Amino acid sequence: MFTRSIMSLAFSTEKQVAISAVRRACSLTASVFNRLVKSETSTKDDKSPVTVADYSAQAVISTMLAHAFPADSIVGEEDSSDLRAESGSDLRSRVIELANEALTADLALGDNAEWGIGPGQAKSPEQLLDAIDRGNFAGGRHGRMWTIDPIDGTKGFLRGEQYAVCVSLIVDAQVQLGVIGCPNLPVDPSKPDGDKGSLFVAVRGQGAHQMTLSGADPAPLTIPTFSLDELNLLESVESAHASHSFHDNVASNLGLTKPPTRMDSQAKYCALARGDGGVYIRMLTNSSYREKIWDHAPGVVLVEEAGGVISDFRGQPLDFGAGRTLGENLGILATGKKVYPSVLEAVKKVLSEQKSNV
Ligand SMILES: Nc1ncnc2c1ncn2[C@@H]1O[C@H](COP(=O)(O)O)[C@@H](OP(=O)(O)O)[C@H]1O
Ligand SMILES: [Mg+2]
Ligand SMILES: [Mg+2]
Ligand SMILES: [Mg+2]
């Protein structure tokens, strides 16, 4: 009895802080989208776009996590070097202003002023830049670390399509908690023009849930038991991020008739978890690219808690202990338990055909 009540409380504060942080970051990103100007988008060294919203959302989430869990490490996508540069002063001012606007907004239900939020809790520029850089942790196999992807799918965000604010907690290389906020995702997939703004929360051993961004209508998620002829693939919109042609070959191999759904960000994992698409698939386009842990950690626990399976193309679990990237994993495949063996077999077949054609 005693053990059970302890178990049921596992990660409850972590969950509440992560939800609260993702919610604040989602209001920030949504309001920046409405006011976004081109000059607030820059290009990082790897040629990916980063906006004023990516930096300020990371500052907000990291500030809250550091207040609530000062001993925990953070692996965050962004760092402040461009903001600290001479040329970054305009961008820096906007980031500081937006982050403080989000941090000092009124407390909502479930919020706690001890997390560094609420009226009067504005931070100095240095504190906010340091909060962004708290995300510089190198990752590793032991201890607690959070991942932050302040905007996953920045390209989708800029197009006004799907993007997600993503936070996870990893303990000894196992993802224990994932929170994904999708401001542009319809609450009800059967009503694409209905209300938008969905929040997905999963804690290991406690199930996966969807609710609105404000926390209304929480509902447990279970991946339906699809048969092969009902499946469709969920893949990245960006052909530079994932090989659409490889995915097409897997679809033909499986005899799928439904076209793939292209969607930016970890919203794909959310769609899979609620049965709005049958298989998340992601084949590298560039063999030197390594998947980032913050792009997948929340999705892993969400899919597993919704009753699905996720692995690489060799059937190996994704390795979150290898640093900031997934290390030796090749490809990503997530789907329902019943069809997983057939889909993995098809993926392996296409992989071996590809090798024999080289
Ligand atoms: N060449 C590449 N191959 C695979 N993923 C890539 C990539 N370049 C960027 N990405 C990642 O793809 C993520 C978006 O996922 P998706 O393609 O499913 O929408 C990006 O996240 P950010 O937008 O957070 O930078 C980025 O980390
Ligand atoms: Mg990015
Ligand atoms: Mg990302
Ligand atoms: Mg990002």
Q: Say how many strands there are.
A: 14
Domains, number = 2
CATH top level label of the largest domain: Alpha Beta
Give the neighbour order of strands across the main sheet. 3-4-5-6-7-8-9
Give the rounded overall mean pLDDT: 94
Structural shape: globular
- In the CATH hierarchy, the third-tier topology of the largest domain is known as Fructose-1,6-Bisphosphatase, Chain A, domain 1
Give the CATH H-level superfamily of the largest domain: Fructose-1,6-Bisphosphatase, subunit A, domain 1
Rg over alpha carbons: 20 Å
Classify the secondary structure makeup into a structural class: alpha+beta
Largest sheet: 7 strands, mixed
Provide the CATH architecture of the largest domain. Answer: 2-Layer Sandwich
DSSP helix count?
Answer: 11
End-to-end separation: 59 Å
Percent helix among the residues? 25-40%
Give the helices and strands as they follow along the chain.
Answer: HHEEHEHHHEHEEEEEEHEHEHEEH
Bound molecules: adenosine-3'-5'-diphosphate, magnesium ion
InterPro entries: DPNP, Inositol_monoP_metal-BS, Inositol_monoP_superfamily, Inositol_monophosphatase-like
Protein name: 3'(2'),5'-bisphosphate nucleotidase
EC number: 3.1.3.7
Family: Belongs to the inositol monophosphatase superfamily.
